[in-house]
Design goal:
This protein has 141 residues and is an alpha/beta fold. It has a domain of 76 residues: Nucleotidyltransferase, domain 5, CATH 3.30.420. The chain is built from four helices and five strands; from the N terminus they run H-E-E-E-H-E-H-E-H. Strands 3-2-1-4-5 form a five-stranded mixed β-sheet. Helix 2 packs parallel to helix 3. The N and C termini lie far apart (106 Å).
Length: 141
């Protein structure tokens, strides 16, 4: 009667039994899947509302707004000016101001190059902060 101990003649062979780990993983997965929809978040989601067609009433009188219409007419605070007049006028205004902010509002159908010309004029005139505003074609009619 012979008894063989360790059929492997090369040495000890060890295998890791991963079945308990998989069982624990699946139980945790089920727990998280069930618990996730029960979590209520306290932060409300605010969706941006479309702009009204009327211009805002609370625009400061010292704001400088340059408008460019679809026909490429340029207005400086609702006064029609040419591009050459715009540069000289803005240079004079920015010489006396400490805050050199400028708003450029262009029609949404305008090519970006036309608006970029206004930005270039504003930078040459001394504007430090330039904000772009969009004027939709529906609101301007």
């Amino acid at each position: 009667m012979g008894m063989s101990v360790g059929g492997n003649k090369g040495g000890i062979q060890s295998n890791i039994n991963i079945t308990p780990y998989i069982d624990i993983l699946l139980v945790l997965l089920i727990i998280f899947m069930v618990a996730a929809p029960l979590k209520h978040y306290d932060h409300p989601v605010r969706v941006p509302q479309p702009a009204t067609s009327a211009p805002p009433e609370n625009v400061k009188s010292d704001s400088i707004i340059v408008d460019m219409e679809i026909d490429r007419t340029v207005r400086l605070n609702q006064k029609v000016v040419t591009l050459q007049e715009l540069e000289s006028t803005l240079s004079e205004v920015f010489k006396t101001r400490a805050v050199k902010n400028l708003f450029i509002r262009g029609d949404s159908a305008l090519p970006y190059g036309d608006v970029f010309i206004l930005m270039d004029i504003a930078k040459r005139s001394g504007a430090t902060d330039i904000a772009l505003l969009e004027k939709s074609t529906v609101a301007s009619k």
